[in-house]
Amino acid sequence: MPTGTPPSRPAGPPPQRPVDRGGPTGPRGPVPAGPAGAGHGRSPARKFFLVLLVLLLVWAVAMVWAIGSSWSKVQRVDATPDGQRPSSEGSNTLLVGSDSRAGLSAEEQQTLGTGSDTGGARTDSILVLHTGSGKSTLLSIPRDSYVEIPGHGMNKINAAFSIGGAELLAETIEHNTGLKMDGYMEIGFGGFSSVVDAVGGVRMCVKNDMQDEKAHLDIQKGCQVLDGPTALGYVRARYSDPRGDIGRAERQREFLGALMGKMVSPANMLLPWRAHHLGSASAENLTIGEDDSFIGTARAMWAFRGISQGKGNSLVVPMSSEALATPAGTAVQWDEERSDALFEKLRNDEPLEVDPSQG
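Below the sequence we write its predicted structure tokens.
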């Protein structure tokens, strides 16, 4: 064989290289196993939660719109007294039902039995809502209470509102009770009726037949749903109540608690369109303090719901006389000892032992 000639190879096909078929490890390391059905769409559970998330976002946006558009319509007034003010535990909101007829036509005034507009506004009801560490307390202050009005001497407490509006009324209450007013809410005759109608009426159990021409009220004893005009007469009437202003104040607290409780019920608060309708009706007829926040106002309304469900205290300032003769006419005199004891407990946010007879 010549030198340099390569050795001969056996006849047959050339050798084959092994074929990498991409087994479990593959040519470049382990291949992760995909989920069953990968490439055929998301699982039913993921689809459900995605749809739910979208619906929650839509609901949240709708609620923000419903609440925001209503809150922007609320009227505001300066209700914060100047100068040195008392300090007290918990929070106190002053609630005023005024006899303002603003926005009511002559026909509406006749329908509601409010009488003609005499100019200005007076307080038809005065209440203080106390909230704190324990049960909430709704306290009625008789509008004819004979007290000292700062800078104006002794007079009936509702004169403070006529003289200096919300600010002087708040100052007068602080001066005579030592309770700092942290919030303010006011509603007039027409607004009250509109709000009641907006919630579809309020169910009340009337204890006695009531006929009161001045309040345009004629209802029978028993449980029934009161519409706006009837409800207004129900909370205003006092001549048909055998207990006079005491019975009137009790009816006002009971009805206000029931009304607020219905306003913040899940049926009204969880549906954006209902929240918007009710919010608009309420906002256009509601006045709050300039410094009041939405959160503070909402908390006060929620406290009313608790009181309407029997989870709070409802009472009137203890009185020693409802027929006190004064230069301002017949007035209400507070029981000094009992009222001072009550105010002290509220100032210190202490639990109350409520006498049912004082309800």
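Confidence is low (pLDDT under 50) at residues 112-118.
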